[in-house]
Amino acid sequence: MKKNVLVLLLGCLLTSCQAPHYSSKDTEVSQEHVMHDAASHGRDEKAEEALPIEEISKNITVTSTSHYPVWRENIAVTIDSVFVTNTKRFVSARTLPKILIYAVGAAEPSYWSVINLSTSFALANELKTLLVLPVGSQKSISSPISKLKWADMNAPWPHASYYSLVPTGEYEFELALEIYDEQDKRIDVIRTPKQKYSSISASDGAAKTE
């Protein structure tokens, strides 16, 4: 009887000490998990890399519009601009966002202004403004034209108010987003479609209210 009990106990011990058995299927699943984790980690690292500056113009969309068909001093006219990224990398670039004013049908602009992307107002003298777009994001700004500084195309930098500079007439405007590298070299420019509007100068506006 004691001998049978000892044999039974010895059999139990041998069974419990056996190494666990893994099927080839279990091994394949584990390998798949490792490969998936590695691929996910690789995608995260890629998302954290900035888009090369030479590729920015092909991977962001820019629009600039005004809801005001007539610009005059007693109206709070704004220019509304939207910057949308279409890439899986974040965007960071030094830029000059210029508003260019054309006489209707003219090939070359007559007046210009520069927008600060952080404040939506005028950009300080000869500086660049940073455009930053995280993955899957967009940036919207609304710029009152009375808060911007303006100049004719011969001026080195805008310093005048819009209504004191631009005469009454028919015009169209566009946003030209100039992109620069760290050495201050212009790499590219993104232009929005032109939009027509009528403008009334400060002197003509005052005369009509008298």
Describe this entry's structure for a reader.
By secondary structure, the protein is of the alpha+beta class. The protein has one domain: Immunoglobulin-like. Helix content is 26%, strand content 34%. The strands form 2 sheets. Strands 2, 4, 5, 6, 8, 9, 10 and 11 form an 8-stranded mixed β-sheet that branches. A 3-stranded antiparallel β-sheet has the order 1-3-7. Strand 4 and strand 5 form a beta hairpin. The protein is elongated, with a radius of gyration of 32 Å. The N and C termini lie far apart (125 Å). About 19% of the residues have low confidence.
CATH architecture: Sandwich
Query: How do the helices and strands follow one another from N- to C-terminus?
Result: HHHEEEEEEEEHEEEH
Q: How many structural domains?
A: 1
Sheet having the most strands: 8 strands, mixed
What attributes characterize this protein structure?
210 residues, three-stranded antiparallel beta sheet, 5 helices, eight-stranded mixed beta sheet, 11 strands, alpha+beta, Immunoglobulin-like
Strand and helix map with partners:
Layout: H1 2-16, H2 24-47, H3 56-59, E1 60-65, E2 70-71, E3 78-85, E4 91-103, E5 111-114, E6 129-133, E7 138-144, E8 150-152, H4 162-165, E9 169-180, E10 186-191, E11 195-199, H5 202-209
In short:
With 210 residues, the chain is an alpha+beta fold. It has helices at residues 2-16, 24-47, 56-59, 162-165, 202-209; strands at residues 60-65, 70-71, 78-85, 91-103, 111-114, 129-133, 138-144, 150-152, 169-180, 186-191, 195-199. The strands form two sheets. Strands 2, 4, 5, 6, 8, 9, 10 and 11 form an eight-stranded mixed β-sheet that branches. The protein has a three-stranded antiparallel β-sheet with strand order 1-3-7.
